[in-house]
Amino acid sequence: MDLESIELVRGPQGTLLGKNTTIGALVITTQKPSFDPEATVSATLGNRERTQLKGNFTGPLLDDRLAYRLTVSGDRADGWVENQHEDQDLLDTNRYALRGQLLYENEHVSTD
After folding, report:
1. CB distance 37 to 59 below 8 Å
2. Residue 42 and residue 19 share a domain
């Protein structure tokens, strides 16, 4: 939802990215928290009662010192197969995710 970049690093990358990267690695970088308030929300509706909700929020917590980024996602759909004997839907989708980040900055230190 809040990707900044995706890199395909050709291997071997043992000293750079760890010992199990003999053929390369896929490096995914997300956006960092921002001190400028921002919100992005999206919703998708589909067949079989499919609903997807996604939200991304960022802004300051403590003036110009601490910022946050909160990403939430939900995906729900009824099953693709109906069990006639027990009147039950199978292979349904129920996925939910929550991810948070903090960014602390001052004149001497900057960590995220």
Report:
1. yes
2. no
Tally of domains within the chain = 2
Q: Is the pLDDT of residue 20 over 70?
A: no
Confidence band for 16, pLDDT divided at 50, 70 and 90: low
Whether residues 84 and 50 share a domain: the answer is yes
Q: Are 54 and 1 in contact (CB under 8 A)?
A: yes
Q: For residue 1, what pLDDT is reported?
A: 75
For residues 41 and 56, state if they share a domain: yes
How far apart CA 8 and CA 107 sit, in angstroms, is 34
Question: In angstroms, rounded to a whole number, what is the distance separating the alpha carbons of residues 112 and 101?
Answer: 7
In sign, the C-alpha dihedral spanning 57, 60, 62, 68 is positive
Please state, as a whole number, how many other Cβ atoms lie within 10 Å of the Cβ of residue 71.
Answer: 19
